[in-house]
Each structure stands twice: as structure tokens, then as C-alpha cells.
Amino acid sequence: MSTAQSNATTLMPGVNVRAIVFDLLAIAFIYLVPTISHMLSIKLYLLEPMRLMLILAMVHTRPRNAYVLALTLPFFSYILSAHPLLVKSALIAVELSVMVFLFYFLVRRIHSLAAIFASIWISKLLYYLLKYAAISTVLPAEPLVGTPLQLQLLTSAAFSLYVYFMFRQHRKE
Known about the structure:
Layout: H1 3-9, H2 17-40, H3 49-60, H4 63-81, H5 86-106, H6 112-137, H7 149-172
Helix pairs in contact: 2-3, 2-4, 3-4, 3-7, 4-5, 5-6, 6-7
């Protein structure tokens, strides 16, 4: 990395400006999703904006930053908009953290396309198992699947293709 690039991404040693700016934009985006949804009369949350921001972080920032976002975005959303419920925020934080872990684990062993797709769906399966337990105990009125599975498959495919093309581009550079 050149000195100019180094100076552009760090304020002080160990402080990554790119990650900080990305995190602030991710939080602002999550904060604005309900407002944008109302303005456009489109349920944007069905397109998994937290997962989108997390996948962008996984591709464009460091792994540590992806973990920070995975753990914090659901709670920032709850604090700012009271959505999703606190219990669901915790479940989503677990799901997203598992997705990050699985991706970084798998991408060293298998193709990036398979790694991201598998990490998304394995973490979703864990989420639905945990949500089922929560519905049985503390969220009795909550449906198990809120977003149609076909739409989840479509967004997973789109996110996976993005990761594939970004990793392919990085290999060419």
C-alpha cells in the first residue's frame, strides 16, 4: 500500500477511516430504511438491508469491521426505530455474526460464490431454529418466516453474485 493510500485510510495508526465512514453510512442507511419505505410505499426491509450492508462491509472493509456491524446493526435499528423487536434483534445479530464467521472460514477452502451462499443459508437456518425457540417461549404471536423464502433466495443469489464478481475483480488486480 502506498503512503498516499495509507494516509487516506488511517487517521492514526490502527484507526481505519474507510471502516469508520462505511459504518456511519451503514447505520444511516439502516436508520433511513423505514422512512424510505414509507416514502416509496415499498417494504425495503424485505430486501434484507442489514445483510446487504454487512456483505458490502465484508467485501470492502476488514473482517473485524464486518463483525462489529453484524453485532451492532440490529441493535442500532432497534434503538432508532424500535424495529425489529429486541429479541429478534439479538437473533439477527447472532445470525449475521455466524454468517460473517462462516464466510471467512469457508472462503479459504471453497470458491467465494459457494462460500457466501452457504454462509447466508446456514446462518438463516440457525436463525430460524433460534426463532422457533423464541416463538415457543417469548414471541408467540410472531410468524416463523416473515419474508417469503423465494425473495430470500433471490436476494441471496444477488448478494452471492456480487461477492463472486468483487472477489474475481480483486484477483485480477
